Amino acid sequence: MKSFIKSEINAAIEKTKQEFTETTDFVQSENKDIKASLSVVETYISELEKENCNFLKNITSLQNRLVSMEKVSWSCNVEIQAVPEKRNENVLPISL
């Protein structure tokens, strides 16, 4: 009787060991997959950050150019005050 109980306990222990091994192997496999996915995502984020930095530099450059162009544009304007306006007046022929 003792040997039967002992063999049953050993069989249960072996079954539990096998199930535990399968579970840890599965978890390890999933962990490897997650690490691989994380690596891909980190690379993608790094590329996006570089692209974003380049866009910000371009935006700054374009803003500076726009400010310069606006200054040049305003420096060529002439404003005349205290001259009466007529309705539907076309001022283009006058300025030429």
Question: What does it look like?
Answer:
With 96 residues, the protein is an all-alpha fold. The chain has one domain (2-75). Helix content is 81%, strand content 0%.
Unreliable parts: none
Count the beta strands.
Answer: 0
N to C succession of SSEs:
HH
- Compute the gyration radius: what is it? 39 Å
Largest sheet: none
Brief write-up:
It contains two helices and no strands.
List strands and helices in order, with pairings:
Blueprint: H1 2-75, H2 92-95
What are the key terms here?
single chain; 96 residues; mainly alpha; rod-shaped; (apollo) hypothetical protein
